Amino acid sequence: MGRFLLRRAINYLILTFLAASAVYFLASFYLKPELNYISKHPAPPMSAVYNILHAQNLDPRVPVYERYWHWLVGIVMHGNFGTTYNGGSVSTEMGQRIFVSTELLLVATILGSASGVALGAWNALRQYRASDRTSTIASYTIMATPTVVIAISLMTLDNWLGTPIKYIGMYDPKVHGTFPIILNNIQHLILPTITLWLIQVTLFSRYQRSTMLDVLGSDFLRTARAKGLTRRQAVVKHGLRTAVIPVMPLLVYNIVLLFTGATFTEKIFGWHGMGEWLVDSIGQNDVNSVAAIGIFTAGVVLVAGLLSDIIFAALDPRVRA
Asked: Distance from the CA of 227 to the CA of which of 51, 102, 247, 261 falls in 20 to 30 A?
């Protein structure tokens, strides 16, 4: 098992390096950081623009492979991802953005995955009953609704009901004191958490219901019942554990990739996380920031792959053998 995970880790590291390098070259070829200065009124002289870009390792007159090598050495040797388009530190900005995205996604992903698996298994056990049909209609309705519509609908409902829930930003900057800020932050988490939870619980419940239905008619479950287990014991101990195995990679990858995939939720609710940063960086022709986000995304895919392999092996003894 250890050798298997080590081989996987090496493969993932190689893929992460290739993916990060590809993102850097694509960003360098297609983003034009000089436009950030040329579009100003009055426009600065090109010599000044090239001096600024050269200091940021973005000078288009320098061959892209030289810029790539300088960027790579800075990361490997010094942990320096370069500077943003406005001269700030990419490393500092990325650390702040990761913290914001983690806070926003943590509760939603845990609740969404757990409740999605539970709801899917429960609907499979009650196949074609009223609750199953109602859940199916609601799930497909939510899945067909864009995230923007869900978020704005929740905001409109909150305003219509006149509830005291706040939802723009992480917390109200007028609030002072550690405990009041924590309470205010929790209040601001409610609506974006519900938005992300609705999207995840519907997706996971559909997959879990399908895999659970396949397991309910299997021979090993009938054998467990024949040995004296009750239907509930057989389903929980043997059926659910088997049915969740095919869904687990989807759960892990979806949870981890939400770091850069919750763009609309972050934009609408004013949470300055990784997804918002990616969109803003592309619009600002910020090569270093886009490349750093590419490394982060490739890294979280690496983590997701390893977690998926470990969880898969823990649930399925055939993999360990």
From this structure: 247
